[in-house]
Amino acid sequence: MRKLLAILFAFAFLSSCTPKVNLPEGAPPYVKTEELLEKIQAGSMDFQTLVLKGKGRFQDSKQKQSFRFEMRIAKDSLIWIDIADPILGLKVARGQINAQETSYYNRLDRTFSSGSSQALAQKIGFQFDFKPLMAILSANRIQWDMPWYQSYQPGHYALVNFPQDSSQALPAAGSPLIEQHFDPSSYRAINYKISRPTEGQNLFVSLENYQDFENLSFPQKVHLEYRDQSELVIDLEFTKVEIDQKLSFPFRIPKGYEAI
């Protein structure tokens, strides 16, 4: 009897310490947010440089365009991309972006643009931020310095930067609302949702079909949808992924090109 009472008491004590969280059907097991962040960090890809090569497709309300690309990334500092014709492999355009500036030139019409990233975003109507862009292209967690909360979802873990109840703080004024979802076994990112409700802008990114690229787990495909008054879709399919190679980032706007 004493043993039975001890077991029942212990069970009751453990049950009373279990967080009172109403999980939706199909949600993975509950973990504290701090523990989830640690697991995601442990599963993230650590790199100093990253090379992505493959093919892609761009589509908006006016056109569809296929292309080949090579992307070179220096962690937290620079994204460099070279675009080529999908059939002949002729170089079409080259660009680079950091937290402050964006520059690119188009070899087909001999034009270029160079200036602040914010000014370019306003010009093309595509609002972006460097830190989320870096995280998405490396299939890692967006790590802005802001509170993160769990949003319980069927089939995966989700982190959001907006409050789940009235006692929690709202994101800083001007910050986008962010959702990022993670596989419950690998803790790798599977999709992101970034929205700016007052501007009517929404970005959805899906990372699909993780593959082994020379012992490096990385999504084979990225699907991006951006919506405001219109819709833009970009699909990337990676054929080669390398990390920590010694890289160069050649970029020089040719003479005689016209600014736009």
Oligomer: single chain
Briefly note the CATH topology name: outer membrane lipoprotein receptor (LolB), chain A
Task: Spell the H/E element sequence.
Answer: HHEEEEEEHHEEEEEEEE
**CATH architectural type:** Clam
CATH superfamily: Lipoprotein localisation LolA/LolB/LppX
In CATH, what is the class?
Mainly Beta
Strand order of the largest sheet: 7-8-9-10-11-12-13-1-2-3-4-5-6-14
Helix content: 10-25%
Q: Could you describe the largest sheet, including whether it forms a barrel?
A: 14 strands, mixed
Q: Beta-strand level of the residues, as a percent range?
A: 35-45%
Description:
By secondary structure, this protein is α+β, with helices and mostly antiparallel strands. Helices cover 17% and strands 41% of the residues. It is built from four helices and 14 strands. It has a 14-stranded mixed β-sheet. A hairpin with a 4-residue loop joins β11 (201-212) and β12. It is globular, with a radius of gyration of 22 Å. Mean pLDDT is 85; it is low at 1-20.
Which short descriptors sum up this protein?
260 residues, 17% helix, disordered N terminus, outer membrane lipoprotein receptor (LolB), chain A
